[in-house]
Amino acid sequence: MSAGDQKNGGDKPEVAVAEVWPEVERAECLARGAALKWASGVFCRPEHLERLSQYKKRESQRTSSVHTRLKSMVQSYLEGVGWGLEQLREARVELKEVSHALRKAGLESNRNGDGVKSLERLREVSVNHCQLLAAVSNLPRLYSVRSMVLETERLVESRRLLEAHARLMDLECWQDDILWQLQGAAGTAGGALSPEDQELVTKYFSGVGQLVEALGKELWAVVSSALALARQNPTPFVSAVRIVEREEALDRALLEERGGSSRPLPLGRPRCWRACFFQVLDEAVSARFRSVSYLHTRGPGLAGHLSALQHGIMADLATVRHLLEHCVPPHYRLTGAYLRASHRCLHAHLAQVSSWDLESGEIFAVLNWVLHIYNSPDMMGQPELVAEMEKEELGPIISTEGLEQLQNKYVQSVRKSVSEWMHKALQVELQDWQRDQEPDTDHEGFYQTSLPTIITQMLEENARVALMIGVSLRDQTIQMGLYEMENLLNRFREALVEFGKEHRRNPSNNNNKFYLHYLLASISNCIILKKSTESLQQQQSSRSAAQFSRTPPNPLAALDRAVRRACRLVMDQLLLDLQPLLPGLLTRPWLVQGDPTPKLCRVLERHLELYGRVRPPCRACRRRLSG
C-alpha cells in the first residue's frame, strides 16, 4: 500500500468522528488556531527556535497528564454504570420473587373465601353480646336516673349548689358513656349510631338538660346578687365560683382529650361558664346603675343623682375589693372587671345626661363631677384604684369632644342668662332716668345707679364659678361676658341718644328735671364698668385669645363711645342752659349794668357743682372749666 493510500486510510476514522460529532472538529480547529497564535508569538525570531525542544517536552508532559485524567474519569464512570446494572439485575430477581409470592397469596385468599363467610354469623353474635353486656352493666344507672334527676332538682331549689353540681356531673358522665358505648358497638358492626338510638338516649336523659338550665339560672342569680348579699352570706357566691371553675376545667380537659380523636364532645360542651360569669357581673353592675332613682334627676336633683352614683359606686367597690375579691381566684381580677363595667355604664349614662337640654347649673354639676369629683381621692383617685385603672386602660368617662361640647353648652346657657339679666338691668336703668329725684350716690359722693353693680357682680360671679371647673372654661365665660357687655354698652349708648332727643323735644317736662344728673351718673357708671372690664381681661390667660375664632370683643371701645356720647349730651345741656343768656353779652346793658354775667356764673357754678359728682378721669373736665 502506498503512502497516499495509508494517508487516506488513516483519515477515514477522523472523518467518521467529525460526521458523528461535529463539535469535535470545531474544537480541533479552535485548538489549532490557538496553537498557531501561540507559536507565532513565541517563535517570532530565529534564535527562539533553540527552545523548541523544551516547549515540545513540556507540552508532551501536559498532554500525557490530560490523557491520564481522562482515562481515570472514564474508568470511574464505567465502574458506576456496572454497579448500577448489577443493582438492576438484583431488583429484577426480587420482583420476580415478590410477584410469585403475591400470586400464591391470591390463590390462598380465593380458597379461604368460603371460610370467611361462615364467620359473619359469629360476628353478629359478638356484637349482640357486647350490646347486651353494655345494657346489663348500665341497668343500675338507667334505673337510678329518674331518682337522681329529682334529687338534683331538690338540691338546686334549696341552693345546695355544690352537691347539685356533683350529681349533675354524674348524670352527664352516664349519658356520655352510654352514647359512646352505643356508638362503639355500632362501629364494630360496621355502621354508625342510628338517629333513633341517639334520640332515645337524649329523650331518656332530657331531665339532665333541664337541670343544667336550672342550675345555671340559680348560679347567675347568685352572681347577680353578690354585691347585695356579700356582707350577709358570701357562701353561695363562693359555691357558684367553684362550680364555674369546675366547668372550665372540665371543658378544658374534654377539649384536650377529644380534640384529635373521633369521640365527639358531650352535648352542650364547651359551656364557657366563666365568660357567662363576667357577663352576668356586667349586667348586675348595669342593674345597680339603673336602681339609682332617675326621679328628680333633671333640674336641682341632678347633683343629688350624681352624688348617689358616687356613693353607690364606692360602696360596691369596697364590697368587691374587701369581700368578693377574696372569694374568687386571683386571675379573675374582679376589681378590674367591676371597674370596666362601671366605667362603661358611667360613660353611657353621662353621654345620655349630656344630650339633655340642661341648664347652666346642671351642666356645672356634671362638669364638676366628671373633672373633679370622679378623679378625686374620695372616688377613683385612691392610689389602689389608680393603679388598677391604669392596668385596665379605661380612659376618660367623657371624651374630649364630649367635654368640649358640654363646656360650650354651659357657656351658651350662661350667655342666655347673662343676656336676659343685662336686658332687665338696662330696663331698670331706663326707668330710673325717669324718676323725680336725684340718682343715688356712693360713699364718696359720686352719682351712680344699680346698673354697674349688677353687671360687675354677675360677670365676676360667673367667672369665679367657671374657674371651679377649669381655666379654659373661665376664659370662655369671660370672653362671652365681654361680648355681652359690648352689646349692652351699644344699647346703652343708643338709649342715651334717645334720652337726649326726648329731652330736647320737651325740655320743660317735669320728668326731665334731673336729666343732667342722670347723664353724669351714666358717665360714672361707664367708668365703673371700665374698671370691671379691665379686671376681667386681666384674669384671662394669655392663650385664650387664640382659642376663639370670632373677632375678639372690644367693650372698652364701646365704653369710650358711650362716655363720649354722654359727655356730648352734657355739653349740649350746658349750651342749652347758657343759650338764653349769651345774646345779652357784648351789649350796652351788659357794659353798663353787667346784667347777664351773674346769671351766667350761676349756671356755670351749678354745672361745675354737678360735675364734681362724676368719677375721675371725667372729673378733670370740671377743673378745666373752673380754671
TrEMBL record:
GO molecular function: SNARE binding
Superkingdom as given in the UniProt entry: Eukaryota
Coiled coil segments of this chain: none
A GO CC annotation given for this chain: exocyst
BP-aspect Gene Ontology terms: exocyst localization; exocytosis
PANTHER family: EXOCYST COMPLEX COMPONENT 3-LIKE PROTEIN, EXOCYST COMPLEX COMPONENT SEC6-RELATED
Protein name: Exocyst complex component 3-like protein isoform X2
Organism: Scomber scombrus (Atlantic mackerel)
